[in-house]
Amino acid sequence: MKKFFIYLILIVLLIQIIRPNKNRSETVSATAIVAPENIQIILDKSCNDCHSNNTNYEWYHNISPISWIVSLHVKDGKDHVNFDIWTSYNKDQKKHIIKDLKKSIETREMPLVGYLRVHPEAVISDEENQELLDWIATLKSE
Predict the structure, then answer these.
(1) H or E segment at 105?
(2) What pTM was computed for the model?
(3) What angle do CA 43, 23, 123 make, to 5 degrees?
(4) Residues of the chain under the 50 pLDDT cut
């Protein structure tokens, strides 16, 4: 049993070598979505960690395999919509994204439950949810 724990500790230490790239941009994107201030506040607190080029990392995000999981979630989120490249999407992409955004907000699929467990400040109130839906209704796919 003692050897098992020694091997386990060695494995945990060795996997720390494998580090994913962090989702950090040093510049403000010229292709970012332009949102009213009240919407931008909601996006910043509840969406942009996974749907922009700037994730706010906590200390435990530096520990493998947690860092791998976070990296995969961010990649998946950006594959759905990256608010920092909004103006670079074509008309069809925007149309699809707007439809998905509306559905995700209406059904409260976003933010993910797992994200909210570790980021309770990201919970979207009923009022904020309605503000997002009203804003999404104004988005154009042009």
Answers:
(1) helix 91-106
(2) 0.85
(3) 30
(4) none
